[in-house]
Amino acid sequence: MNAFSLRRLFGCLAATACLGSAALHAGEPDRAVLVLTSSNSASGNQVLAFRLDGTSLSLSQSLPTGGLGGAGGNAGILQFKDDLGAVANFGSGTVSRIGRYGDLVGLAGTVKLASGCVKPDSVALAGGHLYIVGATCAETHQWPFGALEGNVVHLADASSAQIVVGRSWAAVTQTSGSVLRLPLQHGGALSGTSAPLTLPETANDTPLGAAFWGDVLGFNPAHSADSFAIANAAGSVFPVPGPTPAFPSNAPCWLTKGPGNIWYSGNSPGHSISIFFSDAQGGAFYKSVPLPGVPTDVTVSDDGKWFAVIYSSGGNGYVALFSVDRQGDLTAVATSSPVGVASFSGVAISD
Q1: What stretch of H or E contains 278?
Q2: What pLDDT digit, counting tens, does each position of 254-274 carry?
Q3: How many CA atoms lie within 13 A of 291 on its CB side?
Q4: pTM (2 d.p.)
Q5: Residues 332, 228, 270, 254, CA torsion sign
Q6: Which of 148, 219, 339, 343: CA 20 to 30 A from 203?
Q7: Which CATH class for the 3-9+33-350 domain?
């Protein structure tokens, strides 16, 4: 496909973003499940698309983003929703829009950060907005068009790991020991202010992964005795013990929300997926699902039917896909083969 055809194709993707996924998926009875991740290379970032064929998960496309990777200690650097997605280029200070048409993904434009904002390492998509956090700022952009909106939140601490967004507030985890509460304006953009949640001593060491369940935040203070915690919109925090023994043997690090009251966390030193149950005021560790390597990010598909994890083992990065049953239990479906990337960053599912 020549450059003109690609521009025309992905111009159409951007223009049809507001039509909704039902319209975009019409006439695609054989649409494949794709698992997307990024190479995160400091010399040239790429989005890698893995296609599910039965019990095989094979690399179907490598797409240069036009930017540089290099992020570490982060999650959510790549997100995908309703056939449009975003991936942050840590080394070049941009976010690339990506789009899907059929089983092809391609670039759909570049979003530039606000003035003075650098090193983006996590993004979130919600309510017609793109949220970005990096070393110095958290910011909001119109989605998918990219214009800056709302007020930039300036950060004094460069240790941000992930940004996630609920109904009335957003949160940023910081590996230095903080979870920031970021209020949203009525239209959904960041208001420009932040305040740290008061974390209990048992759940304040190295917050990493996070996810929302409506307006309830779940997060992983990974190196704490209580390695999972729930926070409500009022700022109350409820710690939850994780698998034992705690860090350094186990450390649920990277989090995604599953169906019902289930949460899945990538347990990096434990080489497993830690599964938790919760309500709005606490929860319990359920069980672990073993992995053959170190997980670095996790996600669940929008329809709740698929769970994906990226992990590293023996000097290679892998993508693994699981099916999710009605009770939230996981069944392994397919794992990718090595593709020459030592470790991936960010993972998303398009089905």
Answers
A1: strand 272-279
A2: 999 999 999 999 999 999 999
A3: 32
A4: 0.92
A5: positive
A6: 343
A7: mainly beta
